[in-house]
Fold this protein.
Amino acid sequence: MLIVMEDGASEEDVARVVAQIEAMGYRAHPIAGTTRTTVAVTAVQGPLNPADFEGLARVKEAIPVSQPWTLVSREARVGPTQVTVAGRALGAGRLAIIAGPCAVESHEQTAAIARAVKAAGAHFLRGGAYKPRTSPYSFQGLGEEGLKILARVREETGLPVVTEAMDTETLDMVADYADVIQIGTRSMQNFPLLRKAGRCRRPILLKRGMSATIEELLMSAEYIAAGGNQQIILCERGIRTFAAHTRCTLDLSAIPAVKARSHLPIIVDPSHGTGRRDMVRFLSRAAIAAGADGLLVEVHNDPDHALSDGAQSLLPDQFAGMMDEIRAIARVVGMTL
Amino acid sequence: MLIVMEDGASEEDVARVVAQIEAMGYRAHPIAGTTRTTVAVTAVQGPLNPADFEGLARVKEAIPVSQPWTLVSREARVGPTQVTVAGRALGAGRLAIIAGPCAVESHEQTAAIARAVKAAGAHFLRGGAYKPRTSPYSFQGLGEEGLKILARVREETGLPVVTEAMDTETLDMVADYADVIQIGTRSMQNFPLLRKAGRCRRPILLKRGMSATIEELLMSAEYIAAGGNQQIILCERGIRTFAAHTRCTLDLSAIPAVKARSHLPIIVDPSHGTGRRDMVRFLSRAAIAAGADGLLVEVHNDPDHALSDGAQSLLPDQFAGMMDEIRAIARVVGMTL
Amino acid sequence: MLIVMEDGASEEDVARVVAQIEAMGYRAHPIAGTTRTTVAVTAVQGPLNPADFEGLARVKEAIPVSQPWTLVSREARVGPTQVTVAGRALGAGRLAIIAGPCAVESHEQTAAIARAVKAAGAHFLRGGAYKPRTSPYSFQGLGEEGLKILARVREETGLPVVTEAMDTETLDMVADYADVIQIGTRSMQNFPLLRKAGRCRRPILLKRGMSATIEELLMSAEYIAAGGNQQIILCERGIRTFAAHTRCTLDLSAIPAVKARSHLPIIVDPSHGTGRRDMVRFLSRAAIAAGADGLLVEVHNDPDHALSDGAQSLLPDQFAGMMDEIRAIARVVGMTL
Amino acid sequence: MLIVMEDGASEEDVARVVAQIEAMGYRAHPIAGTTRTTVAVTAVQGPLNPADFEGLARVKEAIPVSQPWTLVSREARVGPTQVTVAGRALGAGRLAIIAGPCAVESHEQTAAIARAVKAAGAHFLRGGAYKPRTSPYSFQGLGEEGLKILARVREETGLPVVTEAMDTETLDMVADYADVIQIGTRSMQNFPLLRKAGRCRRPILLKRGMSATIEELLMSAEYIAAGGNQQIILCERGIRTFAAHTRCTLDLSAIPAVKARSHLPIIVDPSHGTGRRDMVRFLSRAAIAAGADGLLVEVHNDPDHALSDGAQSLLPDQFAGMMDEIRAIARVVGMTL
């Protein structure tokens, strides 16, 4: 149930409605929009009666939600969410490009790539300190050492940092260093991790699972939102299909599908979504043309010696060339970088 | 094996090499490029020895092909193929938009839609006279009556006509009326039909099967080419996956994948690829941004009463609005309409 | 709509009802069961009113069908269909094993394999004279020569013959030689072929398409039944998925799914369903345990030199060993061979 | 690299070889078989030279492993692994049936179901205390209270308990109560959890991810084995495909595929694998016929009021009827219950 407050309702009005809802035994989540506030009611087993809420003071109307997600639903907010990190906005018309190496390997490597992607116009630096790897014998990331490198490179370049947290035990430490915390495709339904991310003070970049439906992606976002953190960026990164010419099949229809159902922004990862360097440029352009709010792109200055995912990383020059095309397409579809 | 002729080789030189190859017991297919001619050697069970061919007069070199397709391989031609229909080109930098109703229902309906899409900038008219329908009790198309309507609307509007042939028995009749013959997704591996299309004098629009790999799509094109018809346009139209928010999952990575392997042009069908009117615009833009050579779009002036696929057909106004964006994105990626 | 006749209704009674239904502008299909006759009404655009039919003489009741298939629906018949070929039954408790080479290569090869599979207990001989092949340069089958070999081997061994027809042009010729006509996975939605098979006097073995749903499989069977041929055997042969350890993923849940929706028998092809000889035995056992009405198995006496699909063909000894297990499992699930 | 010890090698001989391998900078994992011991060498970046190991005392031979998993590979052990829990064996010819409710709801419900499944012949009790749920608003399990109920019911019935651990934080507590710890499909690539399970003293039941390949499943098992825990049971539970007549598509070819690659046992979950009560019986029979080492089946005494997954739970009577068929099929394929 979504409780829409009257336009001029004050913070006190909202707080009183929240208290009244919680007194009924539900949970209340105020969602502040630009023009009005909505209070979502959750933790409900059966159907609710709008009349029970419409009598509360300064409440304009109560709207039942038909889909199983509430807080991230399109109805919960007037207009799309814009996530702002260190002064840089993403969503609601602002396009953000997140680029960097798959894994943080050294300060030298990370700093060189960060300078290159910044020069080409990237807005955020990506790089994994904790790496989920299929094999226990593969390079698993530098851990906290990697986080420290990322933080140092942020100071040197000014680029905010996006990096992955893999479990509840290290989430707080990652939050200490990162500007945005990534929850990876294999963790999209790691519900304890999602719940802890909901109590975290950092924006969350939530990647779609390789076999997740749009509904499941939004329900996982709802876990985070229900915990109190509504700064969520979704990410399409390819799904598992029979088609073997790419590592995954990038499902760009996820972009309009998410926007029709949710106020959250959605970006695209063409690097994991194809697994092939020679396709990243084409699918990046396509993602922006389809309405994505940003890109998550792997760039490496020496991909042949990368410790992970070299085959899908762009060279800095390729990235710079692609950025010119991205800027032009963004203009066509009414986005600003 | 591909036999590359010297740059100045004459038609007689090529004809002599063709005769010599056929005398060895193989089939020879001359593929004329803008600057030189290649002769493909097929109908071969085992490996061939380049030396057997490099001694022939005016032969520059003989190149073994590693992939199972030969005639449609990228190596078989210098540069991409451009298919020209009634003075309108598609491929090699020229973008073509094919639009119209799913099924031809009447002259009035077809003519109205044709005028609307032409006014919005479409280059070809699509419309089914023979319709492959899952149910034997659904509308199966008007048959020859539908073909006559298409031909009449072509005369009235000047738009060349693209329409489907479903079997070997009616292919010749479809070829009598159509400018481009479509082979649908359910027929991609109808090998007798492909073979007959190879002997046809019309360009063929070959749609990817719902569970076909890129390799299988190219092998089906090879059937047509091996029959002597090299005017082939491929079409990505979505694959079957677990994702249920769209009817199929449009695989835009097929575009760079085809272009890396073949000289044939590839277009995209966002209508069948999503099955949802509200997504066509976004995926159409994405297809062009990804490098597609064209679009195949369903447009209907009264989709709620369409005899098939109304839910995925654009209204004429929606199509016109989309065309403006398509034109702008085409410019960014270096295509001309 | 299904019109259930009273138990003692005579052929004349049924004929009169058929005439009355057709006089209303519909098509009527009598389906004779062991205890009573049902008349299916098709070619209907909108909903029908049971009352319009329940007044007809000797009609017990009129049952609207909710699913889009009518003639092959479970409701259309009391109990499952049993297809009988040359005295050998399949379905309704009788298990039938169809075995033989992928392709007919020579009389010697076909006869040797036929004798071996007959000795091991097979009931039908399979073998392709027309082969759908991904590549135009692969062996395409011996054509009519292959059909003649199959007919000769049938005379020598007494095994009825199952072989594929690929197009409407050769269907009649295949029907002249074959006891059961196979429509292959790539032809499951070749609607002109299905329609012609509906007018054919031979039982049809219809294989599920690689990306076909159960609903689509049943609708394709409905095409055949609507043409007047209700001797239809369905076949699960694996679907396209991301899993690459087999050529396709055999979907044994198709067996109970079909039986819940249709009176038609369903068999399983573990050879194409896995593409691997070492898996055929395990999945054959599983298919029978899941309730399949039979198996379609590739057996070759010299698989390393087979002209097609050698890697998935059992050796005659392996087939014989498997048959012992099949017989024992059939007993457990109440089937007789 | 696998170091095969001579047949009569003593524990001291093995310990000395282990020490020598670790002195070289690698990790050594002794794997005791019935007739001989193998020592697996892991934590290796590049290729190893067998000659470096074959000179060690009492070493028979050193075998390089080509696949990326070592400890769980078929070559690492003579014969299949048998996991024994509280005196009850699973694998290597012993079939085990694990049955019970999806979620533990109360002592009364759990005890009633446990008694029923025990009477029907089940060997283990399953039941979730921590439930991974798509929605944050769904019943999430009773937590430790549920674990206590399971332990009490174990005492009452003698059935060992299988229950899921969802995160590293509660794994130890689950291990305190459970006999076998389940790692669910959504956690198959939760690498921190796998690593901690590797240090756990309980057998692990590892379910295949919904979009995991066989290789990825084995690599996840390798994580657990590399941590020191080689008591691992794999579980096929269905994969995501386009087919919508079941919740997932049960991939029974996973059974022979795993057995060809690994010494670990594999069981099947037909409840989640189909999501439909009316299919569980058929797919359970098929799983055993295909060679599975056991079943994981949901049984509920009041499925219409179950707090999760009621639609796929068998009634106790249905489970008992199925067990008779399972026993008969097990005999055919040479398994003992």
